[in-house]
Amino acid sequence: MAATRTLYGSSRFASSSSSTQPRWSYDVFLSFRGEDTRKNFTDHLYTALVQAGIHTFVDDDELPRGHDISSALLKSIEESRISIVVFSTHYASSRWCLDELVKIIESKKTLGQLVLPLFYDVDPSNVQHQTECSEKHLEDMKSVTWMRWGRWRIDSHVEHINLTLSIGSDDVRMIGIYSLGEIGKTTIAKAVYNHIFLQFKGSCFLANVREVAGKLNGLVQLQEQLLFELLGTKNLKIGSVDKGINLMKEGLHSKKVLIVLDDADQSSQLNTLAGNRDWFGPGSRIIITTTDEHLLKGLKVDERYMPKELNHEESLQLFSWHAFRETNPLENFAELANDIVSYARGLPLALEILGSYLFGRNILEWKTALDELQQIPHHQIQKKT
User: So which residues are the catalytic ones?
Assistant: First the structure.
């Protein structure tokens, strides 16, 4: 490999993106611990990617690692469509690697980046269960990564939903994720979607269903987007909801598809976009996120899942990361931080917003913010988040 951050290969994936999608600079970002894998596995992986015409970013692992991760490297992660993380024996002992992983997970959440973990010379269960040599370093990893993303172990939600989806079965299954406030429904749905979409003949993540459906001809627009992403039908003009339903039945009844309907709030939306299981081919899966559990009951989904709110300790850590860039509050702010966390009642987005707002502000500003917060009923906080 080159001694500088030289980039190779063609931009196969980026060239297929539409003008409205993010302009990815690289197809793949490789994150790895050089001393473990550079002269063997990663070299072979990198060569194979380049030979396949995949535009791959690889950092020069021979550069001194005593300094913080560079802004250029962070930018390269943001501009990569996929990140491949090679977990090896000493990956978690490198602060540089952990900084990369933090940014990768952040990009997964905010930019929809696909993250593919690979395990080299380690048992994946050791990472999952935090055993053997990885335990100490994974504790360090949690203290950094978990707080930035909202939850270190969001995989527990993904694992549960994957089990209920029963991907191997041929029946058509519908799963609902619901909660009153914003406690991670969309994040969980995106994580599940990114984890399984390659197992389907077509996939579509319909974001902000409630907002789009409320616009003029919004339901028709959603049907057009759905058909375009699942069937590749360009410049499709449906004209009416009924025609859209007929086109979906005709085009999708034999195709195994994955659909996420994010933030639905009306039965008309569900009836228009996923009204009946026989619209879709064997093995299809439909995931719905909503604040209304009754909506899911009306559709007779196979399972309803409600993510739990963070407990106080988890909330304080998440809030502290955004407010102090540390896992615990600064001593002079500890009492105020606990009061604010108690009032947020475990809502991750509220904690992130409040923490980010208060970052760098003085105690007087904190007290003013708390006074104002106490004037807002909790149900309004849920609506705002």
Answer: 100
**How far lies 188's CA from each of 123, 153, 177, in Å?**
25, 11, 9
Please name each of the domains of the chain with its CATH number: 8-149 (3.40.50.10140), 157-305 (3.40.50.300), 312-384 (1.10.8)
Q: What angle do CA 203, 207, 208 make, to 5 degrees?
A: 155
Q: Are 104 and 55 in contact (CB under 8 A)?
A: no
In the Cβ-directed half-sphere of 219, how many Cα atoms lie within 13 Å? 18
CA dist 337 → 71, 74, 93, 344 (Å): 30, 30, 31, 11
Which residue bears the tokens 């988040």? 385
**What's the predicted TM-score (pTM) here?**
0.52
Asked whether 135 and 89 are in contact (CB, 8 A), the reply is no
Q: Please say if the pLDDT value at position 12 is more than 70.
A: no
Query: Is the pLDDT confidence value at 364 over 60?
Result: yes
Q: How far apart are CA 241 and CA 271, in angstroms?
A: 10
- CA distance readout (Å), 116 to 13, 25, 32, 85, 204: 16, 18, 12, 6, 19
Helix 218-231 with 267-274: angle, nearest 10 deg: 30
Indicate if the pLDDT at residue 366 is higher than 90.
yes
Task: Give Cα 372 distance to the centre of its chain.
Answer: 32
Give the C-alpha separation, 18 to 235, whole Å.
13
* C-alpha–C-alpha distance, residues 223 and 206, integer Å: 10
- Which residue is associated with the tokens 């502000």? 361
